From TrEMBL:
It catalyses: D-glucarate = 5-dehydro-4-deoxy-D-glucarate + H2O. It comes from Streptomyces castrisilvae. Residues 414-434 are annotated as: Disordered. Residues 414-423 have a biased composition (Basic and acidic residues). It holds the Pfam family MR_MLE_N. This is glucarate dehydratase. Transmembrane segments: none annotated.
Length: 434
């Protein structure tokens, strides 16, 4: 065994990153959202980086795994899963308690389970190990995953209804409000101009369905023939979903999570030819058999965090290929480390059937020295060793300082609590909402 590959130290840095007031069915994004940056340092002096969700449920699981990793080789990424099972026992219960208190955040990520929590944490370590291994061997992460099958990965614009500013501080930006079809089209035009995106996803479930249908119609008029998607995060009943599908069937590439749960999704799928995509109904291996047997979803949108990292995402791709189900990737509020990881794995998957979506353009801050740049709606796959990104330690320290200074209110993503700042009576809406 090459001892330079052994892990000497693991650093965990929780941070808070600025997030604009983006609306979704549960509320609005807080001014700052938590992420966790994982650094794995080898005896050879190489540091690999990873990033994952940073709410307390995830933070509770990370320290025991970090401690147990010392002395193990960075190349043993398969061993991470058994190790996490072994060492995260007690803290898993703590994580679950924290997750239970935050169903709002879990809800948008599908049903939260202890396995999914653990896998999301493991993913940050897996990416950090792959980065360190790649840097040691002089190989990009995509080569460690078997090699890229494309040089560029396509992303779609991720449009959000939004306010011009948070009601209670936060960073300012110049995007302005987008609360109607004209606002959504203006936002899409800016995305197309600045980043070259040619497909568009609108986060829905915010306004009554007819208003969102009007927004998608306005997009179709402004961008004839371009792929369009609408994602209400499971906010609609089967009946409403079928109504929306009927109204938009000529312009939608797919409808994303119109209804919540495998049964309702299967009922919608049975009543429309519009393909259904999901990042909520199929989020674990255990959910696949029933969803695929019932043809509830035609496209699975992986989130490499909760699927357990990059190797597991490739396993998911193989399963989708076997069953003739489409594959792509969705995102959450994330930084450049996660976007790099997503791009590396996306580059290796032959059946990447649709443009991935990324929140990244909404993030004004990062912890890497050279930010990713979308060109013609694509990211070029980096061929430098590891992920091909470098940690900006000053930025990391500043964002960690913000986390330390927080009074606790931003350390959990809680879109309903953020909404109550503007609408004191706001409660997380029932499912289905419409
Ligand atoms: O950030 O508001 C949001 C999204 O709704 C996010 O939480 C989802 O996980 O973007 C995601 C999606 O449903 O595709
Ligand atoms: Mg979605």
């Amino acid at each position: 065994m090459d001892t330079t590959l052994l892990i000497d130290e693991v650093r965990l840095t929780p941070i808070l990153i600025a997030d604009p007031p983006l609306l979704n069915t549960q509320g609005v994004h807080q001014p700052y959202t938590p992420r966790l940056v994982v650094e794995v340092v080898t005896r050879g002096g190489v540091t690999g980086v990873g990033e994952t969700y940073g709410d307390s449920a995830y933070l509770a699981l990370a320290p025991p795994l970090a401690a147990a990793l010392r002395g193990r080789p960075v190349s043993d990424v398969n061993g991470l899963f058994a190790l996490a099972d072994e060492v995260c026992g007690d803290s898993r219960a703590a994580g679950e308690r924290a997750a239970g208190a935050r169903v709002d955040a879990g809800g948008l990520r599908g049903v939260q389970t202890s396995d999914k929590l653990r896998l999301s944490v493991v993913s940050g370590f897996e990416v950090a190990c792959l980065d360190a291994l790649g840097k040691t061997l002089g190989l990009p992460v995509h080569a460690l995953l078997g090699g890229k099958v494309r040089d560029r990965v396509e992303y779609s614009a991720y449009l959000f209804y939004r306010w011009a500013a948070h009601p209670d501080g936060g960073e300012r930006d110049d995007w302005g409000a987008a609360l109607d079809p004209a606002g959504v089209v203006a936002q899409a035009r800016r995305f197309a101009r600045a980043y070259g995106f040619s497909s568009f996803k609108l986060k829905g479930g915010v306004f009554p369905p007819d208003q969102e249908i009007a927004a998608v119609r306005a997009l179709a008029e402004a961008f004839p023939g371009r792929p369009l998607r609408l994602d209400p995060n499971g906010a609609w009943s089967v009946e409403t979903s079928l109504y929306v599908a009927e109204q938009l069937k000529d312009v939608l590439e797919y409808l994303e999570d119109p209804a919540s749960g495998t049964g309702p999704m299967a009922a919608v799928a049975a009543g429309t030819d519009v393909p259904l995509a999901t990042n909520m109904c199929v989020t674990t291996l255990a959910e696949i058999p029933e969803a695929f047997a019932r043809d509830a979803v035609q496209v699975v949108l992986s989130d490499h965090h909760y699927w357990g990292g990059l190797h597991r995402t490739r396993e998911l791709a193989g399963i989708c290929r076997t069953f003739g189900v489409g594959l792509s990737m969705h995102s959450n509020t994330h930084l450049g480390i996660s976007l790099a990881a997503m791009t590396h794995v996306a580059a290796t998957v032959p059946n990447l059937d649709y443009a991935c979506d990324s929140h990244y353009p909404w993030q004004s801050e990062d912890v890497i020295t050279t930010r990713h740049v979308f060109e013609d709606g694509h990211l070029t796959v980096r061929d430098a060793p590891g992920l091909g990104v470098e940690l900006d330690r000053d930025r990391l320290a500043a964002l960690h300082r913000r986390w330390l200074d927080d009074d606790g209110t931003m350390r959990e993503r809680d879109d309903a609590a953020a909404m109550r700042k503007a609408e004191p009576g706001w409660a997380t809406p029932p499912i289905p909402r419409w």
